[in-house]
């Protein structure tokens, strides 16, 4: 929280009376505090996130958004209470790391090293299968996967040795914000793997009835939406089809799926305790506050789910009521900072 310059100098009321009521002084002080959020976002992200409704709600609560000039040193800008960022490239991450070291009082959303971990599709899912979610009304798995760094005959043999079952989803190993890092393929047989361009992860395709759950996380808040996904692959298709096929970004469409059109066994949302348990663990393990999780339900099961993807600062513009959720989140950051200062002083 940043103090406004126009703070009253003493407990003096409008009509000049000097009172001993410190509460009203504190209230005035409280109202005049501002929260300044510096943002460094791609133009696409700025368009989808900094919508007029968010800015209006923010202004009413004394929250202002200030664009960070990437051509100027960060420490010369601000001062900021929060830095919200999603930009491409390691250079930017170095700038943020350096800034955070010099300004530990600023909340950086989120730390670059934590983001980096989920920009690699191998480290992204590491450890998830070991999370203990007993008593959470369900089970969380990750698909079997392996990393391919070079396209050699031995690497295609390794697929068989690793015991991966076709079809496999081939995903670029690194997510670097480019369209290419989201170009995915479905590979039906071992020979066709030679057509793919490493480095990539090969991940078993899990039948899930064509519906995916996007689990959005903003601090402590969780919101789930349904999205269309790839249809099941039948045994007949597995036997007859060969080759690799690129598929579109089917689940990133803004349209949420209307539950009424779907088989309820496929459409039913994952159990709340399971989501809460998973998110609590991931938030702590990853050290992120802004992310979403792509989850699918294993076809034919009620409570077996696979995490297939985690995204940093995803398309929140597509999350219902995101504006209010973010305002509450920013205010909670301000409150936490305020409490910390009170504690110290
Ligand atoms: N193992 C899998 N089994 C079944 N379907 C999958 C699997 N992996 C991916 N998919 C499908 O492919 C889509 C894209 O995969 P994924 O989410 O990993 O890619 P992405 O490029 O990181 O997507 P995003 O736009 O969410 O960042 C998923 O939303 C889902 O529809
Ligand atoms: O906006 P960005 O460029 O950050 O794109 C992100 C995209 O959000 P958008 O919907 O606003 O495009 C996200 O979609 P949802 O999961 O919410 O569907 C998800 O696909 C991220 O992986 C993308 O981030 P990237 O992997 O490219 O860094
Ligand atoms: Mg995804
Ligand atoms: Mg992703």
TrEMBL record:
The keyword Cytoplasm does not apply. Its cofactor is Mg(2+). Binds 2 magnesium ions per subunit. Its EC number is 2.7.1.134. Residues 137-331 form the Inositol 1,3,4-trisphosphate 5/6-kinase ATP-grasp domain. It catalyses: 1D-myo-inositol 3,4,5,6-tetrakisphosphate + ATP = 1D-myo-inositol 1,3,4,5,6-pentakisphosphate + ADP + H(+). GO terms for cellular component: cytoplasm. GO terms for molecular function: ATP binding; inositol-1,3,4-trisphosphate 5-kinase activity; inositol-1,3,4-trisphosphate 6-kinase activity; inositol-3,4,5,6-tetrakisphosphate 1-kinase activity; magnesium ion binding. Signal peptide: none annotated. Kinase that can phosphorylate various inositol polyphosphate such as Ins(3,4,5,6)P4 or Ins(1,3,4)P3. This is Inositol-tetrakisphosphate 1-kinase. It comes from Arabidopsis suecica (Swedish thale-cress).
